[in-house]
């Protein structure tokens, strides 16, 4: 990324971001540090400096942490846990539930015995394997198994 300063007093920058070498695309983003704005929109949405704002901060030799919103500071995180949480009362003291009975979906229940069911999504590459069926373990032919293979060596007991 390369930066160009547009105005000195307003801390406005043009940040040029070049994509990977394959696409050879170049993007231009206008970053306004005092207004906390960037053309990409992430600086405004997250209230946290995006990569373009970080490049502008580096060029301006400004500390990027001053552009982080107070919500992300450890002080505000600790203030959340400063309040007392009320304990959960005994189940006998709960108010009775009025409404439809809640039952779990039996189709989503996991089977505890047997082999696990595959959750893999099949694509076109797998269709050939599914159409051919199982193959013989000896000759790799279709339509029969190892036990019924016509090419299997026969062991006759002729003495």
TrEMBL record:
Gene that produces this protein: LOC113866544
Task: Tell me which Pfam families the record gives.
Answer: SWIM
Q: Which InterPro entries match?
A: Znf_PMZ (IPR006564), Znf_SWIM (IPR007527)
User: Residues in domain SWIM-type?
Assistant: 29-61
Which GO molecular-function terms appear in the entry? zinc ion binding
Q: What is this protein called?
A: Uncharacterized protein LOC113866544
Superkingdom of the source species: Eukaryota
Q: Keywords assigned by UniProt? A: Metal-binding, Zinc, Zinc-finger
SMART domains given in the database record: ZnF_PMZ
């Amino acid at each position: 990324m390369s930066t160009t300063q547009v105005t000195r007093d307003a801390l406005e920058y043009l940040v040029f971001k070049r994509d990977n070498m394959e696409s050879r695309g170049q993007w231009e983003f206008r970053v306004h540090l005092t207004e906390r704005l960037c053309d990409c929109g992430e600086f405004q949405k997250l209230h946290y400096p995006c990569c373009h704002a970080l490049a502008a901060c580096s060029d301006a030799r400004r500390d990027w942490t001053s552009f982080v919103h107070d919500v992300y500071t450890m002080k505000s995180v600790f203030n959340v846990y400063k309040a007392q949480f009320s304990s959960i009362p005994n189940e006998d003291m709960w108010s009775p539930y009025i409404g439809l009975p809640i039952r779990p979906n039996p189709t989503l229940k996991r089977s505890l015995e047997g082999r696990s069911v595959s959750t893999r999504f099949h694509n076109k590459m797998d269709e050939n394997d599914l159409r051919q069926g199982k193959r013989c373990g000896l000759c790799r032919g279709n339509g029969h198994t190892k036990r019924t293979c016509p090419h299997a060596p026969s062991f006759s007991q002729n003495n």
